[in-house]
Amino acid sequence: MVTDDQFYMQLCLNEAWRYQALTYPNPPVGALIRDKHGDILSIAAHKQAGEAHAELNACIDAVIKLGDTQIKTLSSATKQHTYLCQKYQNYFQGCTIYVTLEPCMHHGSTPPCSLLIQTLGFSEVIIGALDPNPQAQGGKEYLLSFDIQTKSGILQQSCEKLIYPFLKWQQNKNFVFFKLAKHQNGTITGKHVSSLESRELMHQIRTKIDLLVIGGNTVREDKPTLDCRLVNTQKAPDVLIITSKDDINRDIPLFHVTGRNIYIANDFTLLKNYKHIMIEGGEGMFIKSKNIVDFYLFFTSPKVKSGKTIQSNANLKSLHCFKNSFDTIEWFENTL
Fold first, then answer.
1. Which pTM does this prediction carry?
2. Whole-number Å distance between alpha carbons of 139 and 195
3. For 174-186, what is each residue's pLDDT tens digit?
4. How far is Cα 81 from Cα 115, in angstroms, rounded to an integer?
5. What letter would DSSP give residue 318?
C-alpha cells in the first residue's frame, strides 16, 4: 500500500527527474509543500547548478500562488531567500514540506535551505534520502533541534538513484549516459526522429556535459554539428569520434564550432579525462559502449516509421518516464 508520504514524495521525484543531467554536478532535487489543510501549494525542483534549490523554488511558487509577485522581480536566489525570511517568518506554520534530498546546511551559491525551512516556520519536513555530501549534510539534525517534526527514508532507494550521477561526481568518477531517439516501433532512421521540444532539451543537456561521444559512421553519414544552437548558446562540449579508420571530413560543421576540442580514436580511453559524458549513436555504438554506460536516455516519438532498429541484447531497468507535448522520455539504468 502506498502511504500519503510516499505519494507526495513520488510527486517530488517526478518533478526532479525532468532536470536529470541539467543540474550536474549538483544533484537533481524535488520539493513539495502542503498547507495545514493538506492541499498542495507547490511542486518544484532544482533546475541548474548555482541557482535556487528545490526547497527555495517551492517556497517561491507557494507565495506567488498566495498573490505575492514581488519576489519574481528579485535577481538572485540569495535575494529571494532573504526576502522570504524577512517577510514570511513563521508564515508556514502547520505546513509540511517534502524534499527528495535532505535540506542543505551550508552556505554555497545560496544560503542553507534548512535555515529557510526553520525561519518560515514549517511544522513538518519529510525527507527522501539523507545528503551524502559532508559539506552540506546536517539539515535533519538542525531542524530537529528546533522541534520541527522531521523524518527521512521515504522512497529512499528511488531518491538515492535520482542522485546517482552526483554520487559518482563525489567519488571523482565519471558518469556516462547513452542518448537514443527512436520511433514508436523502435526504428532509429531519420534526421529528426524526436520533436523540436525534445531536441531543445537535448541541446540544454549538451551545455552541461563535458564530452560527447559519437561513432565515425554517424559523422560520415549525418555530418552533424553537435552544438547547442537551439538554446541560443555558443557553448558546446568536446567531441570524441570513435572509429577504426580516420577518414573523417574536417570540413563539416562539427569541426568549426569554437571553444571545443575534437578527438578521433578507436577506443574509450579518453573518457577517463572527463566527468559528465553523453554517448550518441546507432547500433554499433550501442553495442560497443554497453560496458561503460551508467544510464540510458530514450526519446520515443509516437510516429511509426520503417527503417533500422538496434539488434542487441541489453539489461535495462526503467528509472523514470515522462512525456513532453510530443515524445515519451525515459531514463533507464544499465544493469549489465
1. 0.95
2. 41
3. 999 999 999 999 9
4. 10
5. E
